[in-house]
Write a structure and sequence with these properties.
single chain, alpha+beta, Alpha-Beta Plaits, five-stranded antiparallel β-sheet, 5 strands, 22% strand, globular
Length: 143
């Protein structure tokens, strides 16, 4: 009788597990990055550039994880206007907002097309470049 009761409890437990509502899957990094609005991205860029005024930021669409964004760092850090002594070889990555912040050398001239090509070579789509002008974020299309 005890064995029959144990078997009944075991089967009812298995049945309960099998019929339980499926757990909601956590969103992937790509799904989280895709949900970031333009307003949220600009707010994040504003905060970043206020903290690091001698920098520019680039929206690199598709860059949604730190490890896959290493190629962006490799390509961008090789440009002569990048201050590789700051951040991580001159480049800071925010995978959630898909923004690359690039530290600039003193009195360096930024070459938007060079940044665009570097981001493309890394496999991402450079959408915009952001700079701080008179305390406000200025946007420049890179497409």
């Amino acid at each position: 009788m005890k064995t029959l009761l144990s078997l009944t409890l075991l089967l009812s437990g298995a049945l309960a597990c099998a019929t339980a509502a499926p757990q909601a899957k956590a969103p992937t990094k790509e799904e989280r990055a895709a949900k970031v609005t333009d307003e949220q991205r600009i707010k994040s860029v504003q905060e970043e550039l206020n903290t690091n005024p001698k920098a520019v930021a680039i929206f690199a669409k598709g860059m949604c994880c730190q490890s896959c964004a290493i190629g962006v760092r490799v390509h961008v850090a090789s440009m002569n206007f990048v201050d590789t002594k700051r951040f991580n070889k001159g480049v800071k990555l925010n995978a959630l907002t898909q923004v690359v912040t690039v530290a600039l050398k003193e009195d360096a001239k930024v070459h938007p097309n060079a940044i665009k090509v570097a981001v493309q070579r890394a496999g991402y789509d450079p959408i915009e470049m952001y700079q701080l002008v008179d305390g406000q974020v200025e946007r420049q299309a890179l497409q």
